[in-house]
Each structure stands twice: as C-alpha cells, then as structure tokens.
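Bit of a strange request maybe. I'm writing a small parser for structure token strings and I need a real example to test against, not something I typed by hand. Could someone generate the tokens for this chain?
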Amino acid sequence: MRSPALWLYLLGAVTVLSVVLRRVLRRQAPLNDDLYAKQVAIDHVPSGVAWVRSDGLVSFINPALAKTVGLLPREIIERSWMNFFPMGERRRVEEAYSQALLMGKINLQTLAHRSNGTLARVNILIVTVHNHNARLVGHYCMMDDRSREMELEEQIQRLSAGIISSSESRDSHSGAPSSPLW
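Reply from user aminoacidic:
Good idea to test on real output. This should exercise your parser:
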C-alpha cells in the first residue's frame, strides 16, 4: 500500500468526475425529451418528411412519406433522395434544389415514384439547413401527395364539361337561349 494521500487524491478525482457526469446527464435529459417530442410530432405529420444529409442520402423518413412512395422507411434509409422521382423529373428537382441552396427553401409540383409502378402527383418543399459556419448540413424534403385531390378536380372538370355540352345540345335542339343551370 503506497500512501494514503494517493488514495485520497483518487477518491477526490472519482467524486469530482461523478458530480460532473451527473450534471451532464441532468442537462442531457431535457434535450432527449425535446428530441423525442419533435420525433413524435414529425411521425404524425400528415405530409411526408425526409431528412437528407449533405451527401444526398436519406437518413430519416416519416411514415407519411413512406406511405406515399409505398415502401417501408427502412427500405428508403441510406438511399439517394433523387430515387423518389422519375428520371424525367429529376432535372427539374435538381434545378429546384440548386435554387433552394441559394434561397433557403423552394416549392415545386412534380411526380414521385410509387413502389407499385404508378406515379404520385406531389408538392414538395425543400428546406436547406446550414450549420453555424454556413456549411450545408442537409435538407428537409417535405412531400404532400396531391394525387387524389387532382384526380377529383379532373373528374369535376369532366363532369362539368359533360353537363355544359349536354345543356348546349339540348338548347340547340329547343332553340332556347342558354341559361344558368341553377
């Protein structure tokens, strides 16, 4: 056994380190809670959200975006975000991304691939994120599937055109001037 002073120094060092560790963990707990709360919120957003690192690979995707493209989130992680879009649309998306790098964010209406081979009509919002040194960290790609709404709009237009044409043909046979339908 060396000297009791050495053991006292070691005991003091362990005590100081345990106090420091406890304080660090106490400060980290609210950050973890905050991060968890944001994760839960993003998971329940009805539109799709993906976090794309600066290398262009998806590192997070919420269930809504996975549903839009028809894949499981784990099938999309670590893949290029450009795989969301058909080849014919990628140039437009790349140009919009270049503008987002300059302006911070950009909106675009485009098409997205689905796993079943169909295309979804989507509105995307690209929001770039830079660190305190103005270095690109990545970007959020927020995707809102508008396919159903656009199909319904087209159906309404077809029905309206059909009503107008039948109304015009009926009026041409009767000789009466055209009048509003209400």
